[in-house]
Amino acid sequence: MERTIQEIYLDAVSGREEVLEELLMRLQPLIISSIRKYYNRLDEMDDLLQEGRLLILQSIGEYRDDYSVPFLGYIKSRLKYLYLGKNRIRKELSLNVPVGEEGEEHIELLKDDFLTEENYVKREDESRIMDMVCNLPSRERQVVEGYYMENRSIGDIAKRYGITYRTVINTKRRALERMRREMEGKDV
User: Fold this and answer.
1) Bridge partners of 98?
2) Distance between CA 34 and CA 40 in Å, rounded?
3) Is the pLDDT of residue 93 over 60?
4) Which residues pair with 105 in a beta bridge?
């Protein structure tokens, strides 16, 4: 009988190289489908695959059995946010290359605020928040993703998951409180 991802994960915690390789091989199709679905830059496939593998290895140490989501669900979310986050990062350009009919250089076309330290810090904060959302218990993650990332109403989320309106509000409040404490560096 073939072992489940959860069983392989539990065995991989020991750090045995052959088990880690087995886990990476079994999750390779998930990495590829995540790349195609959320980033789809086939010219960067080797680098993207490597980043996905590294994320999985990192996740082995970060995942806790008390999460309300199985390891595979946790990995799916982490890969999703990894590759979605790459869409936000602008491709590096040579700023002195002439473009357009008038031959303006890229540097002339950029907005002043693009190169500010504030934007860099904002991107770092967004990445940290995405990681925190991935680490939320399943129900809290579903509510936060539905409300903030999918722009769903509280009523729609309640209907979608078969819970009361009040439960959605309380779950959202708990999730935000958990994330706030983590941002402040306190134990959750």
Assistant:
1) 105
2) 8
3) no
4) 98
